[in-house]
Amino acid sequence: MGFMLGDILESLGQPVGLRHCLVFAALLFAVGLYGVLTRRNAIGILMALELMLNAVNANLVAFWRYGPGPREALNGQVFAVFVITMAAAEAAVGLAIILALFRLRRTVNADEVNLLKG
Amino acid sequence: MWTASDFLRQYLAVLIVGVVGAGLVGLLLAGSHLLRPARRQPEKHITYESGVDPVGSMWTQSQVRYYVFALLFVMFDVEAVFIFPWATRLEAYGLFGLIEMGIFVFILLLGLIYAWRKGVLKWV
Amino acid sequence: MLFLFPELILCGLGLGATVAALFCRGRGAGRWALYGFFVCLAGVVTGLCLLAYAIDLGPEATGQLTPEFIARTFAVDPLSLFFSTLALAVCGLAMLFSMEFVEEVLEEHPAEFLALIAFASLGIACVARSRDLITLFFSLELVSISGYLLSGMLRREPRSLEAALKYFLIGAVSSAIMLFGMSLIYGLTGATDLRVLRDAVGEGHLHAVGQLAGVRMVSSQDPMVITGILCIVVGLGFKIAMVPFHMWCPDVYEGAPTPATAFLSVGPKAAGFVAIVRLLMLTFAPSSGPVPWAQPVLWLCALTMTLGNVVACRQTNLKRMLAYSSIAHSGYILIAVVSLGSADLALPAIVMYLIAYVLMNVGAFSVVIALSNIEGREDIHAYNGLSKRSPYLAYAWVIFAMSLAGVPPTAGFLGKLYVFMAALDDRVRLYWLAVVGVANAVISVWYYFRVARHMFFVEGVRTEPIRVGRGAGWAIGLSLAGTLVLVPLFPWLISFATSAAQVLGAW
Q1: Where are the domains of chain A?
Q2: Which end of chain C is more exposed for a tag (fewer CB within 10 A), N or C?
């Protein structure tokens, strides 16, 4: 496997490049995923979700800047802009659902929402 | 070629400044702790709130009506992201771009009219 | 532009319903649903005519009828036109079966319900068209976000909101994972165009990529490529409720308002499978060298069928039972997906199965909707003695149950037949998978007909006749006709689907 901790540490000594961005994005994504899996509060889950989406954005922009595609093809940038919009739409819908649920149940904890099972 | 040790050497200065800074602050705090008189009173452990005794829980709910405005703002703000790239390349896209953007803004406008008719824009 | 008309119709329908939402409620919304249905019906008829025309013209000539800037991200070929027409049909049926619901049950925002259905269908149509990762992902997202809202439309009902919250959280996380995979794929190759990706991932066919400089060829065995593709498989697996990513499905289907459930069980699932066809079968399936996603999906496919059917046997709530049944149907379609070695059989099989699935699932759910609009419940005892209260509903259920279980003279049987044929082909030889599939079909007979037993042979507490609403009644009638009429039409359909799938080389 090409993946070695030593490799990463070694590359940290070099001027900022693709690898730094990718390591950062992967860590950010992992933090977000961890948050999604462990948070009880639905708002907290939503925030962790935003971290995951921003990790993707960091990836896309880094790949656009340092990746194999030509600079003039703005694919990565356009993708990132769309992801930002989608994140806003998703947050709006998610908050609306959480708010409506809070009005009914007085809770935003995901583990207390358990009427449906079987 | 850079190596990890070069990289670490560069950060040596940062480390030294950090240690000196922490040491200085620690020294000052320790000095003042030794010099000042210490009289323990229960009032001194209460949360300071402009001289008024704090009452009740610190968890309060904020007004939910802010939320709709905030969301509307975020939505329209984010949609504007699509208008900027178009504006910088206005000539290149010409009439076609203008019509496309017209459709886009029309759909946004429809959203705004919807929000307005549903009474979301009114501060209650 | 001519060939994009299903998308234009759906977009207009959604915007129209949004405007209608400003003025009308209750009755008015029901009338809008009826108009929407007729618009979709006209669209489907036109779509089928255009489809024949497009097949006649061939994909090259059809593509030339489209402006360049659209053709870059939107495919205009017979297959995508077919899927868009299917999306129109789903939208039309959904408008019909939710008519009584928006008139009588849904007190707040009835017209918005219709608008969301139209926008979600627009998303399905755009997924079918997508020729670019960006378009594909955001079309899928349009389907998902509309779905979250649809499942939470009854916002005074804790179960509906709980379904919406679960659907939202799980759907959003799966989208984020899929997006991460897509960003890796984009980064490694430098391209988002699916046609370029197809050539760039694999053993590398240098000739086809000339027009885009700077695209990097990568091996499909590169660990980063495998990570990216598996992330995409996980994301799509959530969308189609593939085991082990199915946990949300029964809860969401049970809690959501019944017409929303009916739509969610066909709409997003069709979108997910169309995306799987585009992404996995046509893009990330290198003609030389091993296909990186095939092995895990093969095992998960067998697991999906079996778990769906076995757990469905234990359910007493009909919506929950149909949820597990829809998981099982995802498994059947996945058989065709993993038999991509015989793509000329597998692609038409998926097309056929999706048509049959849409018809029989909409029909079965319309029976549930018709009853739940009146009784307000969906547990199996609500169906006791239904054959006396409404013979129409009871006999319709029997036909749909036969089709869902795959009993001969129905569309569902032929769908399964073609799927199994794709797996049994000499180039694939997935005999054990076909055996598992047939065994599962046998298990499924039991639980579908258990409901029929309650309808015909168990005395009900209530005996007064049921007045089946206009919309739900018509939706049942249409899908009933479709389920039965498709059978004589099948040879024609399959030859059409094959010719649509053959032109894929040029998509």
Answers
A1: 15-109
A2: N
- For residue C42, give every residue at least 6 positions away whose Cβ sits within 8 Å of its Cβ, in sequence order, or none: none
CA nearest neighbour of C113 among C269, C268, C323, C258 = C258
Helical axes C78-97 vs C110-129, angle rounded to 10° = 170
C330 touches C240 (CB < 8 A): yes
Q: What is the ipTM of this complex?
A: 0.91
Q: What integer pLDDT is reported at residue A10 of this predicted model?
A: 66
pLDDT, one tens digit per residue, over C72-116 is: 888 887 788 888 999 999 999 999 999 988 888 887 888 999 999
Q: Are C256 and C163 in contact (CB under 8 A)?
A: yes
| Shortest alpha-carbon distance between residue A117 and chain B (Å) | 31
CATH architecture under which domain A15-109 falls: Orthogonal Bundle (1.10)
Whether C251 contacts chain A with CB within 8 A: yes
Cα A104 from Cα C120, distance rounded (Å): 27
CA angle B107/C86/C130 to nearest 5° reads: 60
Instruction: Supply the DSSP symbol for B63.
Output: P
Chains that touch C (3 or more CB pairs under 8 A): A, B
Give the C-alpha separation, A108 to A99, whole Å. 8
The enclosing H or E element of C290 equals: none
Cβ–Cβ < 8 Å for C423, C294: no
Chain B positions touching A88 (Cβ under 8 A) are 74-75, 78
**Pairwise CA distance, residues A23 & C275, whole Å:** 29
Helices and strands (H, E) in chain B, number of each type: 4, 0
